[in-house]
Sequence to fold (107 residues):
Amino acid sequence: MADALEARTRRARVVQAAARVCAQGRPEPEPGPERAVERVLLLGELARLPSAQQQALRLAFYADLTQSQIADRTGLPLGTVKSHMRRALHVLRHSLEPEPGVPQPIR
Fold:
């Protein structure tokens, strides 16, 4: 129940943010070369994760499934799905963090 509520809440926030941008008359930014590089880096780091963690993240972010739905689909216990996702996100966060002292592009 809580996972479904969180998924609906997340989608509602995205829709509201998109509506605010459209109401302000600003077009959505075109994906530039920086975004392409970020996607390549993210996909590379995702590929380094263990397969169970990859599967959990792909189902959550690409198929927009809740953790309960992922557990049902994969047959894994809910706690295991939560652990896989937490560990995977932790690894991605640390592997994709900018190094201190390295200048970042201006956005």
The CA atoms of residues 68 and 78 lie 6 Å apart. DSSP finds five helices and no strands in the chain. Residues 2-23 form the longest helix (22 residues).
